[in-house]
Design a protein that fits this description.
Elements lengths: L6 E5 L1 H12 L3 E5 L9 H6 L4 E3 L4 H13 L3 E7 H5 L3 H9 L6 E5 L16 H6 L5 E4 L3 H11 L6 E5 L3 E3 L14 E4 L4 E5 L3 H14 L4 E5 L2 E3 L3 H9 L3 E9 L4 H12 L4 E7 L10 H7 L4 H11 L18 E2 L3
Parallel strand pairs: 2-3, 2-4, 4-5, 5-7, 6-7, 10-11, 10-13, 13-14
Antiparallel strand pairs: 1-8, 1-15, 6-12, 9-11
C-alpha cells in the first residue's frame, strides 16, 4: 500500500530505530563526527551514553576507530553528513573498513543537492564513490518506513554498509505492509510504455510523474531501488523488457550512480532500450534556502521525469504538466 501525496512526515525515524535496536543488541556502538543532533543520534547519546562516542570533526580518524572497534566484535554505526562520510575519509574507509570487510555501518545524511550548503556540503558523488568499493553495500531509502526496516536489515549483514539518509522531516510513503529487502527491488506499479527506476528522495517524484503520465495515456511501471549495490539486475531487466523506454531518477550525479548501474545492467543483458537519466548532469550545484528550488533548477523535479519519459517514447506535442500540490505544514510533497 502507498500513501497519497502530500505525505505525512515524522521526525528522527532513524535515530529512534537505532536506539530501539541497540537496546536489544549490546554490540552496537554509535559514533558521531560532531554532528550528533543533525544526524538524529542525540537520541542515542541521551538514552545509551555508555555506547556513544563523539569522535569530533575528524572523520578520517573516526573511520579508522570504527574499523578497530569492529575488529573487537562491536558493530559501529558511524554518523555524519554524506560528504564527510565519503569524500573526506575515503582512504581510511578503503584500508580500515572495506578491504578487511568489517561490519561498519556508515550513515551519511543530506544526500545529493538536498543540502543548502553548496558544493562543500552536497554529496553528489557519494554513491559513485562507495559503489566502486569491493565489499560495500550501498543503500538509498525513500521514506521513514524503509529507514526503520533498513536499520534492522543491515545490522547482521556481512561487511560494510553505506546508508544514505534524508535529513529533517521524513515522508511516510509506504504503508505498514511494505517490506524492505536487501536483495530485491520493488515493482510498485506495472506498465508497458516506460519504466521509471528510482531511489531515495526521487521515488516520491517518480510516483507523481507516473500519475501524470498515466493520466496522459502513458502506461508506466515504477521500480523502487533502495539497494543500489548489489543491484537487483533481474527485477530491472524484467521491468525494462516489458517497456519501450527506461528513465532513471536519482538525487546524485548521473555519473556513477543509479543511472550508471541501470545502464550497466541493460548493456550486460544485451537489452536495447532507450535510457534517459534524471539527475545532476555532471556539474556542481550551489547553495540555496530551498532544496526544492535546487531540484527544479538542476533538472531533478517531477516535471523533468515526465519530460524525459515523453521524449524517450518519441511522443509528439508538449509533455503533460505535473500538478502543483499545496503542502500543509508538516507534510511533504514531491518536488
Amino acid at each position: 500500500m502507498l500513501n497519497a501525496p502530500p505525505y505525512p512526515t515524522v521526525l528522527k525515524p532513524y535515530g529512534r530505530a537505532l536506539v530501539d535496536l541497540a537496546l536489544e543488541r549490546e554490540e552496537i556502538l554509535c559514533l558521531s563526527g560532531d554532528l550528533t543532533r543533525q544526524t538524529e543520534v542525540d537520541l542515542f547519546q541521551d538514552e545509551i551514553p555508555s555506547r556513544f562516542i563523539n569522535a569530533g570533526m575528524a572523520e578520517a580518524n573516526m573511520m579508522s576507530m570504527a574499523g578497530a572497534l569492529a575488529r573487537c566484535g562491536h558493530i559501529p554505526f558511524v554518523h555524519t553528513f554524506g560528504v564527510f562520510a565519503t569524500r573526506r575519509p575515503f582512504d581510511q574507509i578503503v584500508n580500515s573498513v572495506a578491504y578487511p570487510n568489517l561490519p561498519v555501518r556508515i550513515v551519511g545524511f543530506m544526500p545529493g543537492i538536498s543540502s543548502p550548503g553548496g558544493p562543500s556540503h552536497q554529496a553528489i558523488e557519494d554513491v559513485a564513490i562507495m559503489r566502486s568499493l569491493p565489499n560495500m553495500t550501498v543503500i538509498d531509502v525513500a521514506d521513514a518506513v524503509e529507514i526503520r526496516q533498513a536499520v534492522r536489515a543491515i545490522v547482521d549483514l556481512p561487511g560494510p554498509v553505506y546508508l544514505r539518509l534524508k535529513r529533517g522531516e521524513i515522508p511516510v510513503i509506504f504503508g505498514d505492509d511494505h517490506e524492505f529487502s536487501l536483495s530485491r527491488a520493488q515493482v510498485l506499479h506495472d506498465g508497458d510504455d516506460v519504466a521509471l527506476v528510482a531511489s531515495g528522495m526521487m521515488l516520491s517524484s517518480s510516483l507523481a510523474a507516473a500519475a501524470t503520465l498515466e493520466a496522459a495515456g502513458v502506461s508506466t511501471s515504477i521500480v523502487n531501488v533502495p539497494v543500489i549495490k548489489p543491484i537487483d539486475a533481474a527485477t530491472i531487466i524484467r521491468a525494462a523488457s516489458g517497456a519501450k523506454a527506461v528513465v532513471t531518477a536519482e538525487n546524485h550525479t548521473i555519473v556513477g550512480g543509479l543511472g550508471s548501474a541501470v545502464a550497466e545492467v541493460l548493456a550486460e543483458a544485451g537489452l536495447g532500450r532507450r535510457l534517459r537519466r534524471v539527475g545532476l548532469r555532471d556539474t556542481f550545484a550551489e547553495g540555496a534556502q530551498s532544496a526544492a528550488w535546487l531540484f527544479r533548477k538542476y533538472g531533478l523535479g517531477t516535471q523533468d521525469i515526465i519530460d524525459s519519459a515523453w521524449e524517450a517514447l518519441g511522443r509528439t506535442g508538449p509533455a503533460p504538466q505535473a500538478p502543483v500540490l499545496v503542502t500543509p505544514l508538516g507534510e511533504y510533497s514531491p518536488v
